[in-house]
Fold these 4 entries.
Entry 1:
Amino acid sequence: MAEEKNEPPKMAEGKTESAVTSGSGAATNPGARPQPPTPGPVGDPAKPVAPARPAAPPKPPVKPEPWSSPLLDELLKRFAGAITEPVTFRNQPSVNIVPEQLVAICEFLKSPDGGAYTLLTDETAVDFPKRAKRFDIIYHLYSFAGNNRLRLRVQVGAEERVPSVTGVWPTANWLEREIFDMFGVRFDGHPDLKRLLMPDEWVGHPLRKDYDILRQDRDWVRANLGIDSAQ
């Protein structure tokens, strides 16, 4: 009788030893390297989106408020009937002045008793063509001594003249020339009132509301540029 031999069981075709020992490899194959654990989802789990905050209510519009101060009291006392509409807007006081008293009021405001408004920071104009007093002439004053600002306004018609304040603040020279050039307002007592930006022979004043944005002095353009239109 042939002697029987005990042989190890054969692995199934297509499988390797590592496949057999996977899963419980440490138990079936003590020499196998343990596999790292499968990583989980990165970061914290998604949080619910917070509801949008309701829109803030609109801020109420800022409106001018009545202005009162010792300076205003002194102005009303010295120049009775010449000061109207004293208001303050965004912490800047403003008054209306009649043209006849403009220079005297400005001289007082420049003096120490008047607040020492030694700097005329700007002088400009605004056109309201449908109004009888068509132009607002605006003066912005500054006091270094008190760190204060003051706004003056003079209202005049299209043919009215305004006293020049070049004798009070020399900076008014070119500022009044620009107003004359752009708006056609004339200043009595100005030392050299002529155009500042446009050619001397130019007809019209470009910042008047009735001066069309495409309008030009075609005669000047033809005579000086040799073309029919500068557009």
Entry 2:
Amino acid sequence: MYVLLFVFLVALFVAFVPGVLVTLPPRGSSKMVLLTHGLLFALVWGLLHSTLSAVASRFNYKIGGGMLEAMGPKKHHKNKHHDDKKHVPAMNVPSK
């Protein structure tokens, strides 16, 4: 993830925490306030994400790996004590 994009994401999240800058709706229930702030955060992030990604990629400062890279196939190390042949399970043949 790009550093600048991450910094913007954190700043945007903090800005949309109810009560930090504003509470919308002013006299709404706590669930309504949380829902409103969550939807506004998602809307602003959705609109600005691609633009900010393009700007951040110009600076090319990256941190960490992508989530999909972390979830990719794991490399297996061969154990010295096992032979390289694949184990084939025995077939169960019914006896007559």
Entry 3:
Amino acid sequence: MKKVLNLGCGAKQFADAINIDIDPEVNPDLVWDLNKGLPEELLEKENYFEKVIMFESIEHIQNFQTILKQCLTVLQPGGNIHITTHNFRGLMHRIKIFLGDSSVFWNFGHVICFTDIILVEELKKAGFVNIILKGNSFSCKYLPPQLSGNIRVKARKKGN
């Protein structure tokens, strides 16, 4: 069985991963609504996966805290989770809000808006350690991650 989980994969699928998405049109390995948590057959694989990927998907999951805890369960000790999401505190988002436009946050099925602080705190609450926060390279490479339009986070499960 593959050792990488790609949750909310959309069209960005990886050959070495179990690609999971709610949309059957993107042809994932498993069609599943992550609002229900991880599928039971994956939850049975405690300490199995080397890596979990959530690129631009966590903001679509209402019970994201449950998913983070479940990811911790299925990750091997020393395994990593990689998350990207929009940054509510990003400079461009701040400008748009100042100008009265907050629609960017609620388009495309977003149910929660993360900031760098909130995402890091939620990862800590779930039990992740060694949390590394970065911004994206699309806004401006000189901006600190807190002002970047998107945030990238890598966190590890304790052990090894």
Entry 4:
Amino acid sequence: MAKPKTSASAHREPQKRSSKSTGHDVERLEERTQEELYQLAKDLHIPGHMDMTRPELIEAIRRR
């Protein structure tokens, strides 16, 4: 029996949006732990990152 034909797009991974300045996948920020977000914010030299909530960290990282 022949294999059923599938389109090439059926095997592609969905594209993730990437923020322009950081290159971090937007969806991946949502999946990271707060500790990972703190470390990323520290690496990006975001002032006040230790006082931010998880949503604030994500927003600040996206602005970078």
